[in-house]
# Entry
Amino acid sequence: GDSVTQMEGPVTLSEEAFLTINCTYTATGYPSLFWYVQYPGEGLQLLLKATKADDKGSNKGFEATYRKETTSFHLEKGSVQVSDSAVYFCALTLSGNTGKLIFGQGTTLQVKP
Amino acid sequence: DTEVTQTPKHLVMGMTNKKSLKCEQHMGHRAMYWYKQKAKKPPELMFVYSYEKLSINESVPSRFSPECPNSSLLNLHLHALQPEDSALYLCASSQIIPNSNQPQHFGDGTRLSIL
# Structure
């Protein structure tokens, strides 16, 4: 079935380090891909999205490229800050009309000063 | 600032109580969603409303009863809940499906504790 796999966390980095969080997916058809971020005590915020192959989503210094050939959507940031500490969820929706988001398990990022 | 507003932020209730969670959005979205999220897990879809009609029920127990009185409001009525129902309940909205490339916008959730 359709699914999203994220790298196991937690990921612990020092401030200004480079971040990569891996995300791969399995889907029939042509999914749209999303990264959501959840800060402690809050709901999910859309971080970025990509709707077709080779699209690059970017926001707040984060970016991810929709790679159809490797079925991946890895999240990257060149220089993380303490304020980026949160849980990051990769997700997809499928073409069609269910509106259902399929989430990965989430990756906790902790950035230390 | 979130554009989806959920009330209350916290709720503690006994297993015999009846309570309701409320969600409101003013983005003109015609699809609204309820999710349940346990600690350190991704959200699990419960219900989807499309044009104020229930389109998906993910086999949710009948002690959870959703209601969509108009295009801006979504309620979740709770009755005779169990301790395992303690969780963060998230509401979301999006432009109408089947444009599945439209992202869902989430509220900050209601943290529910069942005594």
